[in-house]
Each structure stands twice: as C-alpha cells, then as structure tokens.
Amino acid sequence: MDSTPRDRGDVVRASDASDVLDIVGIGFGPSNLALAIAIEEHNATCAPEDSVRAVFLERQDHFVWHPGMLLDGATMQIAFPKDLVTFRNPTSTYSFFAYLHAKGRLVDFVNHQTFYPSRHEFNDYLQWAAGRVDADVRFGAAVTDVAGLRTDEGTVDEFAITTANGETLRARNVAVGAGLRERRPDWAAPSARCFHNHQFLFHIEKMPEIRHQRFAVLGAGQSAAEVVQYLHRHYPDAEVHSVFTRYGYSPADDSPYANRIFDPSTVDEFHAACPQERERLLAVHKGTNYSVVDIDLINELYTTEYQELVRGKRRLFMHRASEIVSAQEGEDGIEVSVRSNLDGLTDTLVCDALVLATGFSPAPLSELLGDLAPKGDQVTEVARDYRLQTPDDVRAGIYLQGGTEKTHGLTASLLSNVAVRAGEILNSLVVNRSARLDLGRVEASTVVDSTSNEFATSEAK
To answer: Is 70 exceeded by the pLDDT of residue 337?
Structure first.
C-alpha cells in the first residue's frame, strides 16, 4: 500500500472539531442501513455527549435493493432472523418480526411455516426499515472522492468526503458500503439483447420485439436458474437454453453444520487463522454460496425438462460442460456460439436475448479512496473490526462494509452478518473514541471486546 495519502491543497486542513462527523457512510444499502439503525439505538440510550454523529451518502435517489432481480416466486436464501438487527439486538423494533407486526401479517407469516420469505417481502422489509430510521441520509449524492486531511503534525485524523454535487463533508471515519459490480465475460458487449441478470426485469420490460422465440442464459448459480425458470414460465412459446461449464446444476449446501460457516463467531475464528487456512476454508465451503442452486429449484427444472422429453415438445435445454465463446448482435437478434467442452463442437443459437448471470465483483476501492486504497485493490489487510489497514500516519478509520471475504469469511458480501457487523463497527468507533485512541494506530490483530458494549453480540475469542 502506498504510504502517502492524497494531500489536496484545495481542501482545508483539519480544524474546528464541531464541524467534524464521527462517521460518513458511503452508500446506503442494507449494510449501512443496519449501521444507521445501530447508531440510532445507541444514541437513544447514551448521554448526549456520547452520541454518534453520522451522515449517509447514496448515489441513488431512493433506497433500492436489487430491484432488477425481484422475480415472482423467488425466495431468500437466508433465514429471516438474519435481518438488519436481530443477531445484534433481538429486542429491536427494526426486526423482521416487528415489520410483520406493523404490516398486520405476523400471524399469517407464522402460519406460512417458513424461515425464508420471498424476495419481494424482504425488499419491502428493507424499504420499511429505511423509511423509519432516524438518520441523516442524503440521496442523489454520489461520492466522488475521499481525501485525507493532514494536521500540522502531518497525520491524517480526518477525511474530506466530496460528492458529485460539490458538497464536502469532514469525518473521522468512513464506512464504505459501495456494493458490487457486475462481472461480464470479455466478449460480452452490453446492449438491449445482452445484459447482466442484475437488471433483468428492467431489460426484459424494454426488450426489442421477440422474433426468434429463443433465450440463452449463461451461469450455473441461483440467479441463473431463477432466470431460466422465469423465462420458461413467462414465454410459453420460447426455447430457453441454459449454458454452464458444470455437468449439471449443483445443489447449495445448506445443512446445519455447513451453515456454521456463516455464524458470527466464525468470523473471529476465520480472522485469527493463517492465510493458508482461510483460503482452504473458502474453497471447501464454496458450495454454500457460489455457483450453487436451491435443490427445490433444481428438481423443478429437471421435472420440467423431463416432462418435455416425454411429450416430445422441448423448450428447455441444458448445455452442460459448455461455454459461450462469442455473441454477435444483429438487427433482429443476437447470435450466440456455444461450445461443448466435451466434444469441442460449437452450436450457434440465434436468440432474442442473452442473459449473463455471471456474478459480481467488489466495487474497486481506488475509485473512492485513491492512494488510500490497497495497491491493485487487493484487500488483504483488514483488522477484525473491519478497518482497512492504513499507514501509521493515517489515523482516521476506513471501515469496509463488504469486500473482506479473504479476511472475514463468506459472510463478507452476504446479508447474513450485517446486523452483527454493524454492531462491531459501531462498538469499535465508540470504544476507541472514548479511549482517545486513533483508529488507524490500533494493530490489525486487535479485537475489540464485544462483550463491553450492548450493540455488538458476536463472540470474541
């Protein structure tokens, strides 16, 4: 990591402490929403002088959560108690149960006998929480720059956070929840007929005229299978071609023992392990999250394919151990070349659309943090309390709300740990501020005692 943070001559150096926020949240998705709730609950119980001052900046003009993937019938892959608050504060009025009660559906949901609400309902829960939280959230405020402000002693104790509309805030800490970026193959040129599944519903709604009655979907994970199911159901005259490099869809491992990889206490164990053991565990338990599909959906798609074989009229096709090598778009369709890795033969499909269910990558930190970001955006040094390891002269804190899988485990990019992580970030901020410690000087191996604060509940080893 470059040891020299940006020193902007046009940015005022740190001075009046009354103008400085405790933390600025960059992005206002579920992770920073959970942090905002944790801060509200902290401020409601502490002395006024101990309250945390926070502002959240979000580039969208309202709260959104993957609206392009809110497919009818799609359910969550995590149990509802892993909501924004319950694992941190089971008595919180922001729990999923509190939401159901407020909406008058608590009894009906219990009668439904499921731990897994629909994606539509969980989105409604998130919208409900975002509308209730007592936080300074500034929508339509895309962050363009985070620069260090040097004191006369040469240390960076604060950041200047600048938005696209020219506003600049000063804060002692930032919580980066910038989200994920769509991952696309090199040969894919985004268009009205070739698009990532993240914006699936929007593209389908505006798609050009269907002439070939044929779709292709690239990918082997849950999202790919859901898109295949959706297209097969909603376009009853169309063929749907699912293309993946595996021999078949692999079921997600959601067994009780495997699911312990997502336990809050596992983050302590994972972070304390050596890098080699971390890599081994990520590889061993990859089947809990990556390129895997819910077994019920697998069975439904297989049954559909089999019944078509029986009837002799096929619309669902699985291209196993195959890959797309090119996609050429024309005036009335897109020509997709699918190569079998088994026999080397290539089939050409003229489709109305190609959906890329090819996953995501963490948003590059360098676009926000510049020289404060790790070289090559390789996040390998993150303290247990989710602070990015910075040079000794950078004492303000950069907390990462995601992108820490290599240091904190598989929960880093998932919803399952947002409640506990928010409590741990808040706890770190409060404890270190009260002790007049510089966040940046705390050793990366330091673990804040989570039992000393009611807002963090994970076990500290």
So the answer is: yes
